[in-house]
Automatic annotation (TrEMBL):
Membrane-traversing stretches: 12-34, 46-69, 76-94, 100-117, 152-172, 218-244, 256-275, 296-318, 324-352, 390-408
Domain of life (superkingdom): Bacteria
Keywords: Membrane, Transmembrane, Transmembrane helix
Name assigned to this protein: Organoarsenical effux MFS transporter ArsJ
Alphabetized InterPro entries for the sequence: MFS_ArsJ, MFS_trans_sf
Organism field: Tropicimonas aquimaris
Length: 422
């Protein structure tokens, strides 16, 4: 019992560090997107800035599970926070006199470091849930839903914080301030971190990262397309559309547009996080078997597919930015966020239900590598589709991605021996 309480304290410490990290991660995304848009970067160039971030997330997740299994979960957490501090300070060193190509490459590399940092931190906290959650009822589903939901709510606040900082203290002042705060948190966590997380095993082999479990692989494939469906509109398309609608090009107009875009993105993420945390209650998971939750996953991703398809049709009919289209987009994307959050929460439960304790860091790492692959694909297609076909193509691509996630999810078969989520 004492060991479990000690483990719970470790989980709380990891979660607190993860919240602090996600606050800066959300702020940094909006800082980079809006700052470089005002410097004249095209939609596809803006997408390039985030490509290495997502690619390095894939690489990191693939190796982070093995690193944690070999060296322990605290090592990956400390490394994630430390690398994010380095990335923030590096962004402060960006010289405005550099040419466009040099600036793009530099920011891509720094964002790549940030991608490594994020996924080291994510894998640490998600793996801790599997090891420390209650073993009865819907305990695992509730714990992972609360962690994921609260993390996204904090990231949403970070989106708003980033736009406010950009409009007040500027780009360089913002990243230096965030680096200082994160450094203080890293020191505090390192001093007060209790024991309770796995310390690693010397015999862990890298090849163990690749799962032989059919459900883990199928769920990972479904995750690729699920997050591709979100990021294809979320990363570049919608923020740039809103900027075109809201800003008159003046400094004051830009500042107001930044705040309004940041507010929408923040509210979307916060609401998304709240729904994720609520999902176990909404789905009455306590009374359902894992097979029944798999069936719900199929239904909810099918519903998700219809929403961007309908919005793409609206954008095609409108032909150009209009008030009714903007209002429809805001309402439709909030509905998308609700349905997407339920899908994401169910996925986060299923990956932990499908894996074993002795493989948790590696299966979770492989799964979130797929998550990063989906974000990479969505990020690339976000800039490309918006530049080639505008909003209708961007939203139509999101619908296609969601449909592919539905096809992969339909192939899942839980076949779990337990009678309820554990």
């Amino acid at each position: 019992m004492d060991d479990r309480k000690q483990g719970l304290s470790a989980y709380i410490a990891v979660t607190a560090a993860y919240w602090a990290f996600m606050l800066t991660d959300g702020a940094l995304r909006m800082l980079v997107l809006l700052h470089f848009h005002t410097l004249g970067f095209s939609p596809i160039q803006l997408a390039y800035l985030f490509l290495l971030y997502e690619f390095m997330g894939m690489v990191t997740n693939l190796s982070a599970g093995w690193i944690a299994a070999r060296f322990g979960l605290t090592s990956t957490l400390y490394a994630g926070l430390g690398i994010q501090i380095v990335a923030l300070l590096a962004l402060a060193g960006l010289d405005p006199e550099w040419g466009l190509a040099a600036s793009v490459v530099y920011v891509m590399v720094v964002q790549g470091l940030s991608g490594v940092a994020k996924d080291l931190s994510k894998m640490s906290s998600k793996s801790a849930v599997k090891l420390l959650a209650p073993n009865t009822g819907d305990g695992l589903f509730r714990w992972v839903a609360y962690l994921t939901g609260s993390k996204n709510a904090v990231k949403g606040v970070g989106f708003l914080l980033g736009t406010v900082l950009l409009g007040t203290v500027g780009f360089i002042g913002s990243v230096i301030a965030m680096a200082a705060v994160l450094a203080a948190i890293l020191v505090a966590i390192a001093i007060f971190m209790p024991s309770g997380l796995p310390q690693g095993r010397k015999g862990a082999k890298f090849k163990e990262v690749f799962s032989k479990e059919r459900n883990v692989n199928l769920l990972s494939l479904a995750r690729v397309f699920l997050f591709g469906a979100r990021d294809v509109w979320f990363v570049v398309g919608i923020p740039i559309y809103f900027y075109a609608v809201l800003s008159d090009g003046s400094e004051a107009g830009n500042r107001m547009a930044f705040f309004q875009i940041g507010t929408f993105m923040a509210l979307w993420i916060i609401a998304y996080g709240a729904v994720q945390a609520w999902a176990p209650g909404l789905l009455k998971a306590k009374d359902k078997t894992t097979d029944q939750i798999v069936a719900l996953a199929v239904q909810w991703v099918g519903l998700l597919t219809l929403i961007p398809a309908a919005l793409a049709l609206c954008a095609l009919v409108a032909g150009a930015p209009t008030n009714w289209l903007t209002i429809t987009l805001v309402a439709g994307l909030m509905v998308f966020g609700f349905v997407f959050a339920v899908n994401s929460s169910v996925h986060s439960y299923l990956i932990l239900a499908f894996t074993r304790d002795d493989r948790v860091t590696m299966d979770v790492g492989f799964y979130y590598m797929s998550n990063a692959a989906g974000r990479l694909l969505g990020t690339l297609l976000s800039g490309l589709s918006y530049q080639v076909g505008g909003l209708p193509l961007t939203l139509g691509t999101a619908a296609l991605m969601a449909g592919l996630s539905w096809l992969a999810t339909r192939q899942l078969h839980a076949g779990a021996p337990r009678t309820a989520p554990t």
